[in-house]
Amino acid sequence: MTDASPLALPVVDAELAQRLVGRLARIEELLAGHCQGRTPYVSRAAAHLMMAGGKRFRPLLVLLAAETGTHPEAEEVHTAACVVELTHVASLYHDDVMDEAALRRGADTANARWDNHVAILTGDFLFGRSSELTADLGPDAVRIQARTFNRLVEGQILETVTPEPGEDPLAHYLDVVAGKTGSLIATSARYGAMFGGARPEVVEALSAYGEIVGSAFQLSDDILDIASESDTSGKTPGTDLREGVPTLPVLMAQASTDPADARLLELLGADLTDDALHAEALTLLRQHRAMDQARDYVLGQATQAKKLLEVLDPGPVRTALESFADVVATRSS
């Protein structure tokens, strides 16, 4: 996949890519309509982040997974693609309030442009709109969406608290990632296969695949935050480290009992807003074996995800899904 690719997934088959591009354009049209409220004010607030761009990875995964079935062009597939993207964007409004963020996708966040009340209620509006659409898909879809939403919100809650006494901090963090990120990507793959008419075993395999690669993609971002020498990861290297955000390599380093790691452990428990301390911690962490441990973990997750795809017939869809797992595995190397 090159930077010039119009798709957020590595689709090399020209015919498949063309179909997906065309259907994704249809999704864009539908999303613009779903952001319309009864008043211009609500419509502007609801469309603010939706129209700011984004990779549309989740609806694209719905469309790609639908290609494993007998009717990938079904209108229910389009509806499901809108459901997952509306849910995702709605969660971003709430995330930005929690993070007190000023920018999202290069634009002012809703909380910065208006205020926290407008941002929260706009997120609620989009969650409501996604629920309306889910109801059109039937009771099974409603049940799946409700469980997904519960996991997403619970993941957001757990992200704000420290692990319980005796709880493994790494296990806690992986649970947060699975809830906040993996759950909705799993549902994206499930919806696509389900409404595209795929076999039941394919639906289950793609759902499991989606959760694994979705979580692994976030974990590879964790590694890039430490390893990248420039802002190629989309943010300044060590941003999470400076802000005290727990990430995969940090948590793996903190599990060390080696006396030689005493200075690194001291720094990881300190205030790293100081530039000199931050630079020292970043250097030590880059040299630490936790980086290789984190990469090995992500590689193992990607391998596990690809194994699930063996239920699919060989072809461009399976190749695209395997290639995405490979991207997840190698982007942090």
UniProtKB/TrEMBL annotation:
Its cofactor is Mg(2+). GO terms for molecular function: transferase activity. Keywords: Magnesium, Metal-binding, Transferase. Pfam families: polyprenyl_synt (PF00348). Its EC number is 2.5.1.-. It comes from the Bacteria. It is an enzyme of class 2 (transferase). Transmembrane segments: none annotated. The keyword Translocase does not apply. Belongs to the FPP/GGPP synthase family. This is Polyprenyl synthetase family protein. The lineage of its organism: Bacteria, Bacillati, Actinomycetota, Actinomycetes, Propionibacteriales.
